[in-house]
Amino acid sequence: MRYLDADAVLSLGPAGAVAAVVDALRDGLDPAEDLARIPVGLEHGQLLLMPSQRPTAVGVKVATVAPDNPRRGLPRIQATYLLFDPTSLALRAALDGTALTTLRTPAVSVATVLPALPDRPLHLAVVGAGPQALGHVRTLAAVRPLATVTHLLRDPVGGPVPAVRLGSPEAAAALGGADVVVCATSARVPVFDSSLLGERVVVVAVGSHEPDARELDGPLLERATVVVEDVATALREAGDVVLAVAEGRLRVDELVPLREVVRGTVALPADRPVVFKGVGMSWQDVVVAEAVLRHTDTGR
């Protein structure tokens, strides 16, 4: 059994992680068949078990979510990943699960929206400055040059990266001129007024996996093509989707599974916004964990 630390996990690189996700989906992986996440409520947060199986591997991520950790100087989400042989179920490797999550979440986002990205340097607006926000910047930079990157925060003073204040004229200008907007926050209510966004913007929202929490407002989902990892999972966990449906702004039959986009069976229209709402699914971890192990073994 091997242990792969954060450096080993991240050595796969954003482009390698995107390729692993795309290849798995094009080879027939169906997210609708994935095993469900198992949440366990704790006194100071939440424990998540995320099992998945493929013909080539079985794996499980054990993650904790501690909302007060940032005040302690600790990550909000911490995790370990265990990868097993699919036949003997012997443990093959343990991986730094926090690094794996940081790598695989933006890889899934970018694999999904890649067909909708303009073929030129992008103007990017990022709501948030945590690991997922920065991971999305790195992963987008692996597939397109970035002309500008603007981080938007409620309180930009003393933040980890230069940022503008949400609600300011500078934030409105960044959102209005963005080709891509990434939302990676712990917010439970919309983080901006979507009327600021252009008609061809691509929006990625990955900050929550609870049915009563949202980063995006209903009017955006009403005018956008909405892509999700899996329809049933989105209706169970994606508050942005659940609340828009409840408001009558979005119909369930309008939701587009990401598998159809990546496989090319559904084309994303160019004349309206595209929204990808991700909550994180177990298949994503096992796909990228296998790619990490293969990369550390072969360098490919």
Automatic annotation (TrEMBL):
What is the superkingdom listed in this entry's lineage? Bacteria
Sorted alphabetically, the Gene Ontology cellular component annotations on this record are: cytoplasm
Entries under Pfam families matching the protein: OCD_Mu_crystall
Spell out the SUPFAM superfamilies in the cross-references: NAD(P)-binding Rossmann-fold domains
Query: InterPro entries recorded for this chain?
Result: NAD(P)-bd_dom_sf, ODC_Mu_crystall, ODC_N
Q: Sorted alphabetically, which PANTHER family does this protein's record hold? A: KETIMINE REDUCTASE MU-CRYSTALLIN
Question: Would you tell me the protein name for this molecule?
Answer: Ornithine cyclodeaminase family protein
- What species is given as this protein's source? Cellulomonas shaoxiangyii
